Amino acid sequence: MAKTKPSVAFIGTGIMGAPIAGHILDAGYPLTVYNRTRAKAEGLIERGAAWADTPAAAVADADIVFTMLGFPTDVEEVYLAGDGILASAKQGATLIDLTTSSPDLARDIAEAAEVSGLHAFDCPVTGGEQGAVAGTLTLIAGATERDLESVRPVLETFGGTIFCFGGAGAGQTAKLANQVALSAAMVGMADALSLAQQSGLDLEQTRELINAGTGRSGAMDSLAPAALAGDYKPGFKVKHFLKDLGLALTVAEEKEIALPAADTAFTLFDMLEAIGGGELGTQAITLLYQEEADATAAGLDWSLYRAEDADEEGCACGHEHEGHEHGESCSCEHGHHHDHEGHACVCDHDHDHEGHDHAHHHHGHEHHHDGHSCSCEHGHEGHGHRHHHECEHHHHHHHDHGHKE
Ligand code: NAP
User: Fold this and answer.
1) What would the pLDDT profile of 210-252 be if each residue is shown by its tens digit?
2) Among 75, 132, 141, which residue's Cα sits nearest to residue 105?
3) 261 alpha carbon – ligand 1 mean position (Å)
4) Fewer beta carbons under 10 A from the terminal one: N or C of the chain?
5) Is 3 a catalytic residue?
6) For residues 27 and 4, is the Cβ–Cβ distance under 8 A?
7) Dihedral of the CA atoms 368, 374, 379, 380 (nearest 10)?
8) How far is it, in rounded angstroms, from Cα 75 to Cα 109?
9) Is 30 in contact with 8 (CB distance < 8 Å)?
């Protein structure tokens, strides 16, 4: 007779969590689920999962606990709160965080778990909603092969390939490297489609061409079709990608390196979130290149960006950032000392950067870099919103800024 399977708790049944938990359930593991919004767990409950009213109740009897939450702040709360997982899980349980979260937080959780007689590791995933539904995700473990041994069968119910990066937090760092590569692919996709569109090319043909050669990417392959069809529902939410890029830029800052591609992507996705696109799929980046009417039709509101611009009081650090000397880090104590090189306004005016806001911490651990828009106060009348965007990136040079002197 087969040994009874270990019992599993799953917390966070959103776009990714629900299908992953579904595979665990289908494989015959006794499953208890919890999610902030119960409605998103109903499908699993109907299929036989037990519901728990709190994370503590969900994990009380579980041998293996999975979490698939939104942000590092969610992970911190669910694991480390007084009535969180660490305080409630049973001795010897293995805790696996699938969320894309902070490497430092993953290390903190792993250490605290060890002290409590538990085993915890980070195991973010890649492969998107499609991979979660198909059960073919790539898993990126902050653990050794040996650490994984006892839980490998349950990981294989939803994972195709498992990469072991050795120690706690390393899975998160590797996932962030993946997101950095993705950031360039996303911006590349949107840039290429814009160039093709403005030049009157057939967009689907262009997409196929690019995917047939060395310009191909997962973004061009799986996200461009949705963008071209005007379908912006998530898949992968803009607000989550922004979180990932903020985390990657934080690591880059700690290592004192620049990541210009991730930085550019951060600026663009931050803008997209500022105009109401946080809950859209990342393919909505293409809307930044479109006429305002298209953005409005997709539920975005460019006036929010203007309002935010005007309302911001600028970086609280008290430094004037004169003459674009952004080589030194800002010391504004926002917890994110980001090197601003590469984002200087290209308008050739020697304005200081008051008004370049550093609105960090919209989401707790992650950091926002809106602060790269041109603040030269020329109004840019008649240029519409695309101008806003073009002003802050060197590579958008096909519009006359109207203030070259
Ligand atoms: P999602 O649909 O927003 O799911 C997150 C789920 O976690 C939601 O159901 C949310 O509850 C729940 N949650 C958040 N905080 C919670 C808390 N404190 N207590 C209980 N439940 C909580 O997002 P997703 O697309 O599944 O992504 C989840 C994570 O995976 C993110 O970190 C994301 O970056 C990463 N990821 C996503 C993809 C992708 O393609 N979607 C791919 C790889 C990695 P509510 O229902 O109440 O909001």
Assistant:
1) 999 999 999 999 999 999 999 999 999 999 999 999 999 999 9
2) 75
3) 25
4) N
5) no
6) no
7) -110
8) 9
9) yes
